[in-house]
């Protein structure tokens, strides 16, 4: 766990598992008490390569662009690290993605370091760790996000109705929660 705690902090509500050998990508996310997964069928992404080059974090990089979830991204990848991978759901280029930004500068991913761990790690899918007695429910991306946003929007109401939480001033809690949701209105994928 020490190696994991040294990783940069990030805020995503799910886990992405990529199998680069067969070019597939699964997203795992929890909605309520259930773990869901969906396969990303547009993986790997379709790229437009550019002849633009730059040095980023000491790597000679080439620019490429793509669309993902309703956003346009420019990425810089290096052939010096011949891994066809990158952050989030990015991959499919002839090298590792060093920098990725969307056109509105709402999202930015930057490689901070590359190192070989002292020991091998094996990735276990979340349904084997989080809820080993219940396999992840396979669904579509659209159904997952519909359920996710419905649960998020109705969290306070569902909590009160279930008896899990009680508040002295329920109306104020509802209003405050809805106000917070208004400011969390820039999801990484605008279209699903």
Model description:
This protein is α+β, with helices and mostly antiparallel strands. The chain has a domain at 140-183. The chain has 5 helices and 9 strands, in the order αββββββββαβααα. It has helices spanning 2-5, 126-129, 141-153, 155-162, 170-183, and strands at 14-19, 24-31, 34-39, 48-56, 59-68, 71-78, 96-102, 108-110, 137-138. The strands form 2 sheets. It has a 5-stranded antiparallel beta sheet, with no helix packed on it. The protein has a 4-stranded mixed beta sheet with strand order 1-2-3-9, with helices on one face. A hairpin with a 4-residue loop joins β1 and β2 (24-31). Mean pLDDT is 86; it is low at 1-5.
Termini separation: 33 Å
Q: Specify the structural class.
A: alpha+beta
Give the biggest beta sheet: 5 strands, antiparallel
Note the beta-strand portion. 25-35%
Strand order of the largest sheet: 4-5-6-7-8
Shape: globular
Strand runs, count: 9
User: Regions with pLDDT < 50 over 5+ consecutive residues?
Assistant: 1-5
Average of the residue pLDDT scores? 86
**Rg from Cα:** 19 Å
SSE string, helices as H and strands as E: HEEEEEEEEHEHHH
Number of helices: 5
Helix share of residues? 10-25%
């Amino acid at each position: 766990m020490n190696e994991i705690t040294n990783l940069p902090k990030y805020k995503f509500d799910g886990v992405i598992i990529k199998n680069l050998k067969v070019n597939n990508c699964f997203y795992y996310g929890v909605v309520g008490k259930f773990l869901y997964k969906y396969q990303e069928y547009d993986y790997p992404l379709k790229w437009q390569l550019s002849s633009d080059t730059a040095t980023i974090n000491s790597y000679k990089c080439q620019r490429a662009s793509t669309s993902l979830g309703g956003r346009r991204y420019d990425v810089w990848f290096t052939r010096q690290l011949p891994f066809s991978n990158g952050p989030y759901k990015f991959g499919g280029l002839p090298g590792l993605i060093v920098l990725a930004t969307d056109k509105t500068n709402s999202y930015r991913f930057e490689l901070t370091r590359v190192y070989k761990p002292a020991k091998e790690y094996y990735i276990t899918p979340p349904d084997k760790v989080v809820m080993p007695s219940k396999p992840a429910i396979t669904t579509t991306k659209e159904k997952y996000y519909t359920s996710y946003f419905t649960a998020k929007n109705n969290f306070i109401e569902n909590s009160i109705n279930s008896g899990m939480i009680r508040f002295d001033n329920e109306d104020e809690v509802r209003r405050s929660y809805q106000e917070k949701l208004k400011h969390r209105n820039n999801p990484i994928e605008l279209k699903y």
